[in-house]
Design goal:
The chain is of the alpha/beta class. It is built from nine helices and eleven strands. The strands form two sheets. Strands 3, 4, 5, 6, 7, 8, 9, 10 and 11 form a nine-stranded mixed beta sheet that branches. α5 links the parallel β3 and β4. The protein is globular and about 70 Å long.
């Protein structure tokens, strides 16, 4: 009989590209992963992996087995959710991956509320910009607080359930003494030096897309994904920043924010979980807390647009 843990290791190696990378994500030694994959190879009687430069790739037998492994592991997840639903209680552990820009206004209030309502639940939170949905499909995390900019196609990996939380517009941020609070026509920024994320990021692409729609190519003097750095440059009067509303503390001194009037740049914040026919009480509780925090943050803590 095939070992479910070994199937999970095969899937992780296929996604990470190497045994070493898979071992790191599984908190195991490379030797332990190799040993388990050798046992899996013996179980099926065929080579499952082959060298591919500095990485490894699936053989044809490995590809076929992985297709079945995905269905088997999904069925295990479904069974776990069904049993949890019968018990009807929130569990003791969960893992959350969240964007840095959501920690202050959504994640922290949500975790505080969870601690109050479900004191037995311990949530481990990974704050990262990198490949959150892939971690969800691999089982590394249980819930993802992610983003999608509205100009990008709505594509989620197979087996992932998306729950929209909040439309989060980018605001124009300048030094307090340099601008009023009226809405900004985006083309006005054609003469500004901007502090923006790298163009290979979703936010950077969204800003470029909106500026091109407005008929100009922005002058990007400062390129950084660090929102604190963007706000510091704006506060110093060195640049104009375009920053998601939820990432701005309204009490931040020395800056002024204004909405974009004609070409709004919107990101959709969402909670994502692995899809199951039966809702899991633990992940449902985490998503509900994130949704409540997003709603309250928009209503009580953030500047109106």
């Amino acid at each position: 009989m095939l070992d479910i843990r070994r199937l999970h290791m095969l899937r992780t190696v296929a996604a990470r590209g190497s045994i070493a990378a898979a071992a790191q994500s599984l908190a195991l030694s490379a030797g332990a992963v190799s040993q388990q994959l050798s046992a899996l190879r013996h179980d099926v009687g065929a080579d499952l992996l082959r060298p591919d430069g500095r990485t490894v790739a699936l053989t044809e037998a490995g590809r076929v087995l992985l297709e079945h492994a995905d269905r088997i592991l999904a069925a295990v997840q479904e069974a776990e959710s069904a049993v949890a639903a019968v018990k009807g209680t929130v569990g003791t552990t969960a893992t959350l991956a969240a964007l840095p820009s959501t920690v202050a206004t959504i994640v922290a209030p949500a975790l505080t509320a969870l601690g109050s309502h479900h004191p037995q639940l311990t949530v481990t939170c990974f704050v990262t910009d990198q490949a959150q949905l892939r971690e969800l499909t691999l089982g590394t995390v249980d819930v993802v607080l992610g983003q999608r900019y509205h100009h990008l196609p709505d594509t989620a990996p197979r087996g992932i359930a998306i729950s929209p939380l909040l439309d989060d517009p980018l605001l124009v941020v300048t030094a307090a003494q340099q601008a009023d609070e009226r809405p900004v026509v985006l083309r006005e920024l054609a003469t500004h030096s901007l502090a923006v994320p790298p163009p290979n990021t979703d936010c950077g692409q969204a800003i470029l897309h909106a500026c091109h729609q407005a008929g100009f190519t922005p002058t990007t003097r400062y390129i950084t994904a660090d929102i604190a750095a963007q706000l510091a440059l704006a506060r110093a009067g060195l640049a104009t920043a375009l920053v998601p509303r939820t990432a701005i503390d309204p009490a931040t001194p020395g800056i002024r924010t204004a909405p974009i009037e004609d070409h709004p740049i919107l990101r959709l914040l969402f909670a994502a979980t692995r899809h199951t026919e039966t809702a899991n009480p633990t992940t449902t509780a985490v998503v509900a807390a994130l949704r409540t925090a997003a709603r309250q943050g928009r209503a009580t803590h953030l500047p109106a647009v």
